[in-house]
Structures are given as structure tokens and as C-alpha cells.
Design goal:
Keywords: Membrane, Transmembrane, Transmembrane helix. By secondary structure, the chain is mainly α. Helix content is about 55%, strand content about 0%. The protein has helices at about 30-55, 55-60, 65-75. The relative contact order is 0.06. The model has no long low-confidence stretch (mean pLDDT about 80).
Length: about 80
């Protein structure tokens, strides 16, 4: 009943359609690269969405506008 083939006690009479426990398909390297590529692609899209929704007050106004405000503040003193 020990049909784990070096992976411990796994019943040999159970044959799931996916290949079983600790199954390594022939193209597992390609499958891993596809999965990692998809993961990093989704993370990149989430990063771009976060950058698009971020607010930086330094870029909201032009340098000329800020200079006008600074001059007006100096005149009030």
C-alpha cells in the first residue's frame, strides 16, 4: 500500500486525474515561468494603477504659481 515512490506514505490505489501528489509534469519549468510572468504582470498593473491614483502636491501647481505665492507671503510680513 506504500506507493509514494520515495515521497512517503501515499496510497498507490488513488489515481487523481491531475497526476497525483508530488507530480512534476514534463513542462513544469514553462508552467512556472508562465505563472510567474502572470503574477508579475498583475503586480505591474496594480503598481501603475496606484501611481495613477497617487496625489503629489508638489506637481499640482507650477513653479511660477508657487513663486507668486511666495512673493505674496513676503509682502504680507
Amino acid at each position: 500500500m506504500s506507493g509514494g515512490h520515495g515521497h512517503g506514505f501515499i496510497p498507490s490505489w488513488v489515481k487523481p486525474p491531475t497526476g497525483g501528489w508530488m507530480h512534476t509534469p514534463k513542462n513544469h519549468n514553462v508552467n512556472g515561468l508562465i505563472a510567474l510572468g502572470g503574477y508579475f504582470g498583475i503586480m505591474y498593473l496594480l503598481y501603475l494603477q496606484g501611481e495613477k491614483n497617487s496625489y503629489n502636491p508638489r506637481t499640482a501647481y507650477s513653479y511660477a504659481t508657487i513663486q507668486k505665492w511666495n512673493e505674496a507671503a513676503k509682502e504680507e510680513k
